[in-house]
Each structure stands twice: as C-alpha cells, then as structure tokens.
Predict the 3D structure of the following.
Amino acid sequence: MTGLAVEPGVSVRAPIAFADTYVDPMAIRAAVRVLESGWVTTGPETVKFEAEFASLVKADHAVGVSSCTAAIELAIRAMQLPARSRVLVSTLTFCGAAHAIVHAGHVPVLVDVDPTTGMPGERDVAAAVDANGTPAAMLVVHLAGAAADVEGLARAAGLSLDRVVEDAAHALGTSVGDRPIGAISRATCFSFYATKNLPIGEGGMVTTNDAELAAAIRRMRLHGMSADAWRRYLPGGSWRYTVEEAGLKANLTDLQSAIGRGQLCRLSAWQRRREDIAATYADLLRDVPGLGLPETPAGTWHAWHLFVVRVTQAFGPGRDAVAEALAERGIGTSVHFIPLHSMPYFESFATAPSYAGADELFPQLLSLPIYPRLADADVQRVCEALRELAGPASTPVTARG
C-alpha cells in the first residue's frame, strides 16, 4: 500500500477542490432509463426538459443545445443581423462568448467594465458606442451569478431589448425583482457545464419569448434541417426534410436531458446551500483588510455561481501570491476571467482607448471554492488561511452562529 509519507504527529488535511461535480442518484437512474430505452439522442426527454426549464425561468420557450457557447452563436445567428455587424461584449468574460460572435459571422466590440462589479456599466457601453458607432446587437454577460442591468445597458447602447442576447452561464438562479434571468431580452443562454449550478457535464439552453426565434434555433441546432431524427422516425413520420438555412450540429441529447431533469429536482436545495456558503464567507471575511467582497446589486438575487474576492494592494501579498499560498495549503482557487483585450487573437477587437476598469480589476480577482457539497469546516478553513495571509491586522475567524 502506498500513500503520502508524513512525520509522526503531523496531520494531513484533505485538499479543498475549487469546484465539484455531483450527479444526484435520481439523475443517474434517469440516465440509465434513457440508455435502456433505445433512444438516446434528441427526443421526448429533451422536449420535457425544455418545458420544465422554460417554466423555471418563466420564459415561453426553451431550446436545448450542446453548450452555452453554441447557444450564444445560435441566438445571434437567429437574429439575422447583416453580415459582420458589430456586437458589444464585455472584455471580462470567457473567450467562448466572443468566439460565438465571430463564428456567427459578426465582429465583437470589447467593452470595458466597472472595477467594482466586473461588468460593463452604462458609461462603459456609451463610451464603446462613441468609439465605434451604434452596434447592431449586444451580448450582456451576467458575471459570477450577479445580475447585469440589461435594460439600462440596452438604453446606453441605443438598442431595443430585441437586439440583446444574455450570457447567463453563471446566472441560473439569478433574478431581478421577481423575474428570473431568462426572459428579459430577445434570448438568454445558459450552461450545464460540469461546474455550473445545474451540472450535467456539457450542454446549454436558449430561452426566449419569441416563438419564431425559438423555431429558428431548433432548426439551426441540427444543420438547419426542417425535422429532427425523432420526428422523422416516429410511427407515421416521414424521412423527408429540407434545409433552407445554414446550421450547426449543436443539439442536446435525451441522455443529457434526463440527467438535467433529475438535477433540476435538487436545484432549489443546492441554491440554498450556495447562499449559506456565501453568507459564511461574507461574515468571516468582511473585516479582513484589503480584501474586497462581492456585492449583490439592489433589487436582485445572486445565484452565487462564484464567490469572487478582490485582493487589493492593502491586503499585502498580491493575488498570484495568495493563490499560490492557498494551493500550498491544499485550497483550490481560480480567476474569472483573463480580459479578452489582453489576448493576441482578440487584440483587433479592442477598440477602446483603454480598458482601465478591467486592467485595474483583473490583478485582484480570485474565485474561492463554492459548491453545495463544500463542508462548513472547509469554508472556515479557507477563511482562516486568508486571514493568516493577511497578517496580524486580521482578526481571528469566528464561526457563524
């Protein structure tokens, strides 16, 4: 038997992973049921998952696709913008969001962010419009689980809401007032990646109140074909189909949908656990000098996909040093995100005179572990480590009562 050799009397603490993927037993049983059914690709299970998801976010339609990136591309394609239209997008987002704009045949225009929120503000959008002219559309990114001001950003861009697509990869469970993110703009795009609030492994969803847009995305997710395989192979179905527009291979399968439906049954409990963890972090870290904590915009509900702190100069050790020190203590962290304007491929889309907000914020960003199976003791251990790194000015950790 092999293992980690340690000195007598020295305890070894288990690592705290940055992220965790849990598949509920109900979802596993559903997956087995679909595997045994003889039909595993897009079919009746996907139809049911789409209906349940649309109801959850109070949208009229939901279309299951292969990823959030595919969802964004398909939503923008379905808007039928003129070729090489300018589409605004935050510079502080995952590269896939901007790639989706490019692959849809358009030009991403990178927008700076407010360094307190990590998302573009109305002034940032207005500055991008002044520098580039009125865009054809905008991709609004909800970051970490916080809600962006979709209506305000649309006004600043001179756009109606039917020219706005939302990237809600982080925002399942986010709401504005009593409206869940999912039915504010023309289309909203969600992710079911392994680390997301509703983990399937891979997959995505587009929600919309526009029946024609939903129908177009249904066709385009399967090569632009007028009928999918399930409908062609149903008793009485016809093998005939036509193709009238370009499409992708980007459908969600029944196997994925079965897992998603099973996971949906646990989503409310998982969201409550994320809220508890975020509250504990806030309680135990709020007085650490130089450590900025996330805020929830007034009148909104945070999904807590990520818990992102800002390691400012007043903290002492810089962000990278803190991440390395936490890793040495067995604590995983990450950074969301590397600004796109700093990447060689996206340099030509960086048309602002500067990206001062993103450049100020990026060196401070550090995402801490937050997921439903994270133990209270592990949350406290993360906080203890951060207080230790902050130095003697930091007060001892006191657990929440």
Summary: The radius of gyration is 22 Å. The CA atoms of residues 32 and 373 lie 24 Å apart. The longest helix spans residues 267-285.
